[in-house]
Amino acid sequence: MSQTSSQDSFNTALCDFLSRATTPFHAVDAIVKRLDAAGFSALRDDSSWSLEAGGKYYLTRNDSAIVAFSLGRDSSRDSGMRMVGAHTDSPCLMVKPQPEKLRHGYFQLGVEVYGGALLNPWFDRDLSLAGRVSYHGKDGLLKTALIDFRRAIATIPSLAIHLDREVNQKRSINPQTDILPILTQLPGEEALDFRRLIAEQLRAEHPEIDVAEVLDYELSFYDTQVAALLGLEGEFIASARLDNLLSCYTGLEALLQADGTQSTLLVCNDHEEVGSLSTSGAQGPLLRSVLKRIAGDESAYQALIERSMMISADNAHGIHPNYADRHDDNHGPLLNAGPVIKINANQRYATNSETAGLFRLLAKQEAVPVQAFVVRSDMACGSTIGPITAGGTGIRTLDIGVPTFAMHSIRELAGSKDAFDLARVLRRFYDFPGPLSAG
């Protein structure tokens, strides 16, 4: 298969994954299905593990984070683990616990903004709803299930320009009052029972279960427009949740294509967009607990940490042609010009010269170009799971990402070549036979 046809196949599958992974729960569910099909075995926190050289395993946490790893034929204690990290969550609008509102005959739901969302693009979109529901069945036991309406059930209409003449000069959005989605019109004065609506959706999607009562939920709205290639030559990928499901997918593809010689690991954490401090976030114990159980004892764990390396993959800011002055003159990454090494002197990114040097070496071996991103010295810098992982575990870490436009919008844009190239470099990293440090 030619590289062009391989890239086309990769992007087709990527777009399908992005369209299906509408929440972190659905992203992990989709990843698990791929891992199961590839022969990985599920592990549980509350059970003993019997790990074997050449074995392939995964562990989920909170249904929204996952660690998948393969124990290579070479001892992980001797050669370390090649790790890739990403995150499953994206900024969105989450439904409040008591959300029902009926105003002027329009049934609406109260929402809370999750993460640093760009709010303007949420107006006038065809929205659906998905997430995890906790319920008890007729047997009285607490259970959970995923739901996804997978059709447009809501919208947030803009206010007409005739009623806001200055909207194009200045527009502020009140997240409490301005972004409540409209779901339907009701003739009376009583709002719908939202939990009853959720119970009906549960029964429709899971006819095998008996739902006595919906107890709680974690549900978020999303844009029903599916991921797609666009541009005169198909140069771009447009989708919701590119940040950071694109990195989850590239890491997964690289893991599945690794040759099995080295010990490899992929961690996809939740809650990066809100600080990572949770049981399933990078500040939680998930990765450390898995590595300690792989190592077996404290001495072996310390040796494993010393010989391992993490590539934290999270999208980077491409230079926007309409706003080029927002970038440092020499560090404006272009779409379709290769993955980006992210550098910050104040350790908002975990990259150092050694980890960056290894990535450049790997990219050179794959004939993949590499770019660099440094934020303007007079602007604040975002961060990733990279410094959190490095600081919490002591693992040498590199921050990289695919250049992207409209980050944190309801629909983001990336180059159709970059994700494929990143997957190639990550696979090369997973198969790298040499030591992961220059020492």
From TrEMBL:
CDD domains: M18_DAP. One of its GO terms (cellular component) is cytoplasm. Its cofactor is Zn(2+). The keyword Transcription does not apply. GO terms for molecular function: aminopeptidase activity; metallopeptidase activity; zinc ion binding. InterPro entries: Peptidase_M18, Peptidase_M18_dom2. Pfam families: Peptidase_M18. GO terms for biological process: proteolysis. Keywords: Aminopeptidase, Hydrolase, Metal-binding, Metalloprotease, Protease, Zinc. Its EC number is 3.4.11.-. The keyword Hydrolase applies. Belongs to the peptidase M18 family. This is M18 family aminopeptidase. It comes from Sediminihaliea albiluteola.
